[in-house]
Amino acid sequence: MSAATVREASRGVRDVAESALAWAAAHRDAFTLGDDALAASGEVNRTWKPLGELAQVCATVIRRTAPADPLHTRARDLLAHAWRQTGQGGLFLALQRREPFATYPLEVYAAFAAAGLRHRGYETAAATVARTRGWRRTEQDPTRRLGVLAAERHSGITRPGPADAVRDGTWLGGLPEPWTFEAPSGYALTHVVFHLTDWGRAGPDGVPARLAEYLTQWLPPWLDTCLDAGLWDLGCELLAVAASVPGPLDPAGFQEAWQRLAAARHPCGALPETATAPDDDFAHCYHSTLMAAFAATLTHVHLGAQGALG
Predict the structure, then answer these.
(1) Residue 57 φ/ψ region, left for φ over 0, alpha for ψ in the -120 to 50 degree band, beta for the rest
(2) How far apart are CA 222 and CA 172, in angstroms?
(3) C-alpha dist (Å) from residue 201 to 54, 95, 195, 215
(4) Overall pTM > 0.90
(5) 63-111: per-residue pLDDT in tens?
(6) The architecture CATH gives domain 3-309
(7) Nearest alpha-carbon partner for 13 in 253, 201, 259
(8) What DSSP assignment string belongs to 239-265?
(9) Do 275 and 285 form a contact (C-beta atoms < 8 A)?
(10) How many Å apart are CA 180 and CA 127, to the nearest integer?
(11) What is each CA distance from 302 to 2, 189, 220, in whole angstroms?
């Protein structure tokens, strides 16, 4: 594949990243934590989850782009906004006191910690709870467990026992028959890769060769299946995985997928979760739009490296 072809594919991917982050910046108020963020009856999926995902994506964009890059500047600005929403980390300590054995505060906090934003008081309190038998024996599916282990590491918490056994217990770790792929397993496998690569920040070395080979073979047909079904959100996650495993990307092989996702965007830059999702409704497009920014950034960086070598 010529360097010119790689650069041409990279330009289209870059446009998706720019429009997605521009939409997030224009809708930053929708990521604001309200009074219900600490309420016992508050809906985590409508408060902390969007904020945490914004922080996670921005932390990766910041890590994978140069400081002079407009994508870097915009992501840093959005991350600063998200951190302010947490009271510079103080709300995590309040959450931990209300729900000491809930893992979601630690998982959200880890995204900020990955970007160097820390609250020592929260980390001390979280570490105290993490030493209990109750915390370490919380029953979780293997993919979620990988995420919690990664969050613990970012917060300075370590626990005995190899993480490889947890990884191998996931759907992806078992190298299942490819025809058993469906949407839930698709989301599970993408998150296994995200946890192994620290959401694209640590590079592909965390993905074992046997998993990388399996993914390289089966990602293209799975991606086609998802896009044919209008599953834009999952399609973005699969593209992020493709850019996160060892080995070169085939620009021609994935160019059509990016063109389809670009065409599915609303004029404002938002990408709906599915082809049937309501137009520009925050709840049904924020995650897919963030995943578009995430996948496009990783792909753009990967293709840029290939172009430089080509």
Answers:
(1) alpha
(2) 13
(3) 15, 27, 10, 19
(4) yes
(5) 999 999 999 999 999 999 999 999 999 999 999 999 999 999 999 999 9
(6) Alpha/alpha barrel (1.50)
(7) 259
(8) HHHHTTSSS---HHHHHHHHHHHHHHS
(9) no
(10) 39
(11) 15, 20, 17
Q: What is the rounded distance in angstroms from the CA atom of residue 178 to the CA atom of residue 287?
A: 26
- In the chain, the amino acid numbered 1 is M
Cβ-based neighbours of 209, under 8 Å, separated by 6 or more? 246
Residue 182 carries which side chain, given as an amino acid letter?
E
Altogether, the residues listed in the chain come to a count of: 310
First-to-final CA distance of the chain: 8
Dihedral (Cα; 258, 260, 263, 264), 10-degree rounding = -110
Name 185's Cβ contacts closer than 8 Å, sequence gap at least 6.
171, 176
Q: Tell me the pLDDT tens digit for each residue of 30-72.
A: 999 988 899 877 789 999 999 999 999 999 999 999 999 999 9
In this structure, how many other beta carbons lie within 10 angstroms of the beta carbon of residue 190? 23
- Give residue 300's Cα distance to chain centre: 16
* Residue whose token pair is 């990521």: 31
For residues 109 and 119, give the distance between their C-alpha atoms in angstroms, rounded to a whole number. 9
